[in-house]
Amino acid sequence: MANATIRIDGALALHSLRATRPEILGLKNDASPLFFKVRAGIQEHPVWAYDRLAIVVFCYTHVARQNTGDLSGALEVSLDGILISNGDCANVLAKSIHWHTSGAIRRVAERLIGEFVDGRVTPRSLGVQIDVSARTPPADILKAATQARKGGGW
Fold first, then answer.
1. From start to end of the chain, where are the E strands?
2. Domains observed in the chain
3. CA 112 to CA 132: how far, in whole Å?
4. Residue 3 forms beta bridges with which residues?
5. For 8-32, how does the pLDDT look when each residue is reduced to its tens digit (9 = 90+)?
Protein backbone atom coordinates (compact mmCIF):
# COMPACT_ATOMS: atom_id res chain seq x y z
CA MET A 1 0.00 0.00 0.00
CA ALA A 2 1.29 3.47 -0.92
CA ASN A 3 -0.11 6.85 0.12
CA ALA A 4 0.54 10.21 -1.51
CA THR A 5 -1.06 13.64 -1.37
CA ILE A 6 -3.12 14.66 -4.36
CA ARG A 7 -4.74 17.82 -5.69
CA ILE A 8 -7.58 17.47 -8.16
CA ASP A 9 -8.98 20.45 -10.02
CA GLY A 10 -12.13 19.27 -11.70
CA ALA A 11 -15.85 18.82 -11.37
CA LEU A 12 -17.75 16.95 -8.68
CA ALA A 13 -20.28 14.83 -10.55
CA LEU A 14 -23.58 15.70 -8.87
CA HIS A 15 -25.16 12.37 -9.76
CA SER A 16 -22.31 10.35 -8.20
CA LEU A 17 -23.00 11.06 -4.51
CA ARG A 18 -23.62 7.90 -2.49
CA ALA A 19 -23.92 7.25 1.24
CA THR A 20 -22.80 4.01 2.83
CA ARG A 21 -25.71 3.91 5.27
CA PRO A 22 -29.28 5.21 4.99
CA GLU A 23 -28.88 7.37 8.12
CA ILE A 24 -26.16 9.38 6.36
CA LEU A 25 -26.17 12.67 8.21
CA GLY A 26 -27.55 14.53 11.16
CA LEU A 27 -25.01 13.76 13.85
CA LYS A 28 -23.25 16.66 15.50
CA ASN A 29 -19.77 16.31 13.98
CA ASP A 30 -19.88 12.87 12.49
CA ALA A 31 -21.41 11.49 9.34
CA SER A 32 -21.28 8.22 7.57
CA PRO A 33 -18.78 8.23 4.72
CA LEU A 34 -19.85 9.68 1.40
CA PHE A 35 -18.61 8.40 -1.92
CA PHE A 36 -18.51 10.63 -4.99
CA LYS A 37 -16.51 11.19 -8.15
CA VAL A 38 -14.49 14.14 -9.31
CA ARG A 39 -13.82 14.43 -13.04
CA ALA A 40 -10.54 15.93 -14.17
CA GLY A 41 -10.25 15.73 -17.93
CA ILE A 42 -11.27 12.22 -18.98
CA GLN A 43 -10.38 10.69 -15.59
CA GLU A 44 -13.02 10.17 -12.88
CA HIS A 45 -11.45 9.91 -9.43
CA PRO A 46 -13.31 7.94 -6.73
CA VAL A 47 -13.36 10.03 -3.55
CA TRP A 48 -14.45 9.39 0.03
CA ALA A 49 -15.35 12.12 2.54
CA TYR A 50 -15.93 11.63 6.26
CA ASP A 51 -17.42 13.53 9.18
CA ARG A 52 -17.97 17.27 8.71
CA LEU A 53 -16.51 17.21 5.20
CA ALA A 54 -19.16 14.63 4.26
CA ILE A 55 -21.83 17.07 5.46
CA VAL A 56 -20.20 19.89 3.47
CA VAL A 57 -20.10 17.79 0.29
CA PHE A 58 -23.72 16.75 0.75
CA CYS A 59 -24.90 20.33 1.31
CA TYR A 60 -23.05 21.88 -1.64
CA THR A 61 -24.24 19.05 -3.88
CA HIS A 62 -27.82 19.44 -2.69
CA VAL A 63 -27.86 23.20 -3.24
CA ALA A 64 -26.22 22.90 -6.66
CA ARG A 65 -28.83 20.32 -7.68
CA GLN A 66 -31.62 22.60 -6.48
CA ASN A 67 -30.29 25.62 -8.36
CA THR A 68 -29.46 23.90 -11.62
CA GLY A 69 -32.30 21.41 -11.65
CA ASP A 70 -29.93 19.15 -13.56
CA LEU A 71 -28.84 16.03 -11.70
CA SER A 72 -26.29 15.21 -14.38
CA GLY A 73 -24.49 18.50 -13.85
CA ALA A 74 -21.22 19.15 -12.14
CA LEU A 75 -19.82 21.49 -9.52
CA GLU A 76 -16.29 22.83 -10.05
CA VAL A 77 -13.92 22.03 -7.18
CA SER A 78 -10.30 21.98 -6.12
CA LEU A 79 -9.85 18.99 -3.85
CA ASP A 80 -6.89 18.14 -1.64
CA GLY A 81 -6.63 14.62 -0.35
CA ILE A 82 -4.65 11.48 0.15
CA LEU A 83 -4.30 9.06 -2.72
CA ILE A 84 -4.48 5.58 -1.26
CA SER A 85 -3.47 2.76 -3.54
CA ASN A 86 -3.31 -0.89 -2.65
CA GLY A 87 -2.02 -2.04 -6.02
CA ASP A 88 -5.40 -3.00 -7.48
CA CYS A 89 -6.98 0.44 -7.47
CA ALA A 90 -6.61 3.92 -6.04
CA ASN A 91 -9.10 5.93 -3.98
CA VAL A 92 -8.89 9.46 -2.65
CA LEU A 93 -9.62 10.41 0.94
CA ALA A 94 -10.70 14.06 0.83
CA LYS A 95 -8.96 16.45 3.23
CA SER A 96 -10.42 19.72 1.98
CA ILE A 97 -12.44 21.09 -0.89
CA HIS A 98 -12.53 24.58 -2.36
CA TRP A 99 -15.79 25.22 -4.18
CA HIS A 100 -15.79 27.23 -7.41
CA THR A 101 -19.39 28.38 -7.49
CA SER A 102 -21.60 31.43 -7.21
CA GLY A 103 -21.95 33.46 -4.05
CA ALA A 104 -25.64 32.55 -3.93
CA ILE A 105 -24.96 28.80 -3.89
CA ARG A 106 -22.17 29.32 -1.36
CA ARG A 107 -24.41 31.32 1.05
CA VAL A 108 -27.25 28.78 0.94
CA ALA A 109 -24.88 25.80 1.28
CA GLU A 110 -23.01 27.32 4.25
CA ARG A 111 -26.30 28.07 6.04
CA LEU A 112 -27.45 24.49 5.37
CA ILE A 113 -24.16 23.11 6.73
CA GLY A 114 -24.75 24.98 9.98
CA GLU A 115 -28.27 23.56 10.24
CA PHE A 116 -26.93 20.01 9.72
CA VAL A 117 -24.18 20.42 12.29
CA ASP A 118 -26.73 21.81 14.79
CA GLY A 119 -29.02 18.85 14.08
CA ARG A 120 -31.89 21.05 12.85
CA VAL A 121 -32.12 19.36 9.43
CA THR A 122 -31.39 15.97 7.88
CA PRO A 123 -31.71 14.71 4.32
CA ARG A 124 -35.06 13.20 5.31
CA SER A 125 -36.37 16.52 6.67
CA LEU A 126 -35.30 18.16 3.40
CA GLY A 127 -37.13 15.50 1.45
CA VAL A 128 -33.88 14.35 -0.16
CA GLN A 129 -33.60 10.77 -1.29
CA ILE A 130 -29.90 9.88 -1.26
CA ASP A 131 -28.65 6.74 -2.93
CA VAL A 132 -27.09 4.18 -0.63
CA SER A 133 -23.98 2.60 -2.03
CA ALA A 134 -23.39 -1.11 -2.13
CA ARG A 135 -19.71 -0.17 -1.84
CA THR A 136 -18.08 0.31 1.50
CA PRO A 137 -14.94 2.33 2.00
CA PRO A 138 -11.79 0.30 1.39
CA ALA A 139 -10.06 -0.71 4.60
CA ASP A 140 -7.11 1.60 3.78
CA ILE A 141 -9.45 4.60 3.49
CA LEU A 142 -11.14 3.73 6.79
CA LYS A 143 -7.75 3.32 8.48
CA ALA A 144 -6.49 6.72 7.23
CA ALA A 145 -9.73 8.46 8.30
CA THR A 146 -9.56 6.85 11.75
CA GLN A 147 -5.95 7.97 12.21
CA ALA A 148 -6.86 11.53 11.22
CA ARG A 149 -9.74 11.55 13.74
CA LYS A 150 -7.38 10.43 16.50
CA GLY A 151 -5.07 13.37 15.79
CA GLY A 152 -2.64 11.38 13.70
CA GLY A 153 -2.95 13.99 10.98
CA TRP A 154 -3.22 13.43 7.29
1. 2-13, 18-19, 34-40, 43-49, 74-85, 90-100
2. 2-149 (2.40.50.140)
3. 21
4. 84
5. 999 998 888 887 665 554 444 455 6
